[in-house]
Protein: RING-type domain-containing protein
Amino acid sequence: MQLSCTDCGSYTSRMDFLECKVCHVPYDEEEHRPRNAPCGHELCTACISALIKDSIFECPKCRQKSKVEVPGDMPVSYGLIDVIRAFSTQSIPMSRETESRASGSAIDEMCTVHSKALTHWCFKCQIWICQECLESHTTIIDCSTTTSDKAMEDMKETNSKNIGMVISLFEENTKYMSYRIGELNDKRKEISDKRRELMEMDEKCGEELKNIGNSLEQGNMHKEKLLEAKKLVDSASSQHSLCERIKVATQRKKILHSWSVKSLGMDTPYGLLKALEEGKTVYAKMVLKDEKRNAKLTQHEEKIHLHTFLKQAVSDNSICMSFDQLQKMISMDASLVFIELSLGGSVKGRVYIRLDKELPNIRKNFIHIVTGQKGPTVAGIKFGAKDSNVIEAGSLPFSELRFTRDSIDKTKAKRGDILGYINNGYLQDLAFFSAAPPKTFDYESDWSVFGHMEAGMDVVLECYDELRSGVTVSDSGLVLEK
Structure:
């Protein structure tokens, strides 16, 4: 870019980064104000305005298209504005002769009037003059001059300062741009994380809406059944037998319990556990030999405990679910059971026993006796003998339940094992082995190791020391881990 001197008509040359790369017009602070396009290229405001078509700007350098309504949507390049202001407030004489001298070459041009070497520089006219021109030039035109060597030194110093200032401005601008890039990347990541979170919430909401829709559908079905039951109750009169009235009431109660289980979301393991954690009273019910039996469900350490089925009444505000429904929801093929021991009528704690999975027949029958699914249960049995670090309960009332032995029954016990004495297919004795390790004990073939205690050895040892006070099984059941 070349600019002409208004006084003497000589030409000066400045760095081309101060002009628009499209129209080649020098940048200013008005119509040709420099702006940064989204792609990073710099153009003047006038060119940007001309290149916006239907709110789309296409960069003439890289052809990147961006959505831009008006030039004001693009940020101003304040670094270039500062450089333009610096050049406008300082004299930076850069004629072709000065450029030649600054680059180290001699000035080849001579004074056109006197044909002599150009030895002086005029600050006002911004031109080189010879020695003879100097006398009349300063007198007639009233200019300020200096020798060529002094002018060159001044020009070098001025240009060096200006270049240093431009470099400093660009470094500051680069730092700001780097900071801004980092800031925008952080914001972009934050928006991306928020978008992913919203998508997950949308998915969960959709799932919940689906579950609510299913519950409403089930509720409407139950409502229809309740209306039918209500009609039967309303139409009941003295001519109906007591048996019919009981049948209607039983049907109504069954429908209410079924509806409660589904409406509270207890038809899934997670929903059942959540209901128990919230303090809901829940029972599993079954009919055994024409007798109704109920087993309480509780939770401990985020696991569901199924207690023994007993002939017991439940309160009206309790929630009952059928044992078949519970079995469909949670597998009963578990191996962790609990036996609660009482000493002298006072509960001392629970013993948690992991049954041996290599003994499927023994494990299956033992689960039956801790839950009472088949009738007989360990609840109420007494441990009345101790020998060789063993507390033992004999003469067990399990004559109705036949135990099938496994071919790999273990007969060598170690500390913490629970053993059973099986005679002719019947479990007659149950024992806890509490000897200190590494002691083991070999029993005759009628004894089998059923499993090992995972917790509760302290309870067994306390009962062993105070056996004569009376040790009784106050409760038992199955831990539903799945």
